[in-house]
Input
Amino acid sequence: MIDTILLALGLVLILEGLVFALAPSRLDEIIKLIAQTPRDTRRLIGLLAVTIGVILLSLR
Output
């Protein structure tokens, strides 16, 4: 169980780190775009991401 959690955390850190390392200027633009997106839309996107993540994990 702990191995799976560490694996998932490691994969998230790799993906997040790649964004910062490979496209830092693009990241500034993305942050501005997110800030301009309405709060309800951001909440919906987050809930959809969680739902898709749960579905993918359940298929495993």
The first helix runs from residue 2 to 22. The chain has a mean pLDDT of 91. DSSP finds three helices and no strands in the chain. The radius of gyration is 15 Å.
